[in-house]
Amino acid sequence: MGVWPMEGARSWMVTGNSLWFFALICSIIWAVLLLFGVGGVDKNRRDEKNAKKRAMNVKDDRENRFRGVKRRLVSDGFDLFVPGSVTGWISTPPAFVGFATIISTVLSSKDIWDRVQ
User: Fold this and answer.
1) Tens of pLDDT along 20-78?
2) Domain-embedded: residue 75
3) Of 15, 112, 31, nearest to 77 (Cα)?
4) Of the candidates 3, 52, 79, 107, which lies 20 to 30 Å from 96 by C-alpha distance?
5) Distance CA 20, CA 23 (A)
6) In whole angstroms, what is the distance from residue 26 CA to residue 4 CA?
7) Residue 4 lies inside a defined structural domain of this protein
8) Element (H, E) at 104
């Protein structure tokens, strides 16, 4: 911002954004693993009395979780453009980075709203 110029500010900014980029890559890998079933579903239900009702609840819970994982995957994909453009690893115009940030914010806000409800 140039308010108090410092010697290493640019390198610190690039280093911080590269770490953010790698964290987003890890998040995307984890989301893909969850989509392919590595996370699994809680199968330690012992009461057989309401097995059918619980099966429907497990199915609904699983669908909701997959929906959230897919949303987070898309959000993280759009988020990659911000640190990628700062580090120079992804060459995009600033308008597209702004668009990607808006999309990511809207998707993340939906995820936060669902948790609050």
Assistant:
1) 999 999 999 999 998 887 755 444 444 555 565 566 666 677 787 888 889 999 999 99
2) yes
3) 31
4) 3
5) 5
6) 34
7) no
8) helix 94-116
Amino acid occupying residue 92? T
The reply to whether 56 falls in a domain is yes
**DSSP per-residue string spanning 46-77:** ---TTHHHHHHHHHHHHHHHHHHHHHHHHHHH
Domains in the chain: how many in total? 1
Residue in this structure with the two tokens 């239900």, named with its chain if needed: 45
Is residue 35 a part of any domain in this protein?
Answer: yes
Which residues have CB under 8 Å from 96's CB, separation 6+? 81
Q: Name the residue with tokens 């669902």.
A: 114
Name the strand (E) or helix (H) holding 79: helix 51-79
